[in-house]
Amino acid sequence: MEDRLELNKSFAIKCFNQTWTLIEKVDRSPENIDRMINAAHASRYHWEIAGTAVNIAQGEWLISRVYAILKRAEPCLYHADRCLKVTLESNLQDFDLAFAYGAVARACKLAGNEVETAKYILKAKEAGVKIADKNDRAYFFGELEKIQPGSE
Hints:
Blueprint: H1 2-24, H2 30-50, H3 53-69, H4 73-89, H5 94-111, H6 114-128, H7 134-145
Helix pairs in contact: 1-2, 1-3, 2-3, 3-4, 3-5, 4-5, 5-6, 5-7, 6-7
């Protein structure tokens, strides 16, 4: 059983890293896009088997981010909501809570819902100021700036 968990953990990490590499890629081919979507979902799946609530929430965040990049509002919002739900139900705080609110704000912006975007940007800011590590906090606010009205 332990070997199976370690194998799933390894797959989750590899798929997460592959997704992130493809997120950072400037010119993605259709095959790269398919691989990015599939790797994000695969990472989340393997974390469900071998991870904790933090891993699952971060997996949902990653999927939401992929769909935001692809300008696909419906799945972006679905996975952002899942990220926030897992985060809140598991009482995750700090970096994870701020990024969960940020994911919902990004998805609402993509969907064209300005009221909900503003609501979740405010919640993200409130959570963001509580991030203990100053580098994580700075990174978070840099990412949040990309969601603000008039950005992207």
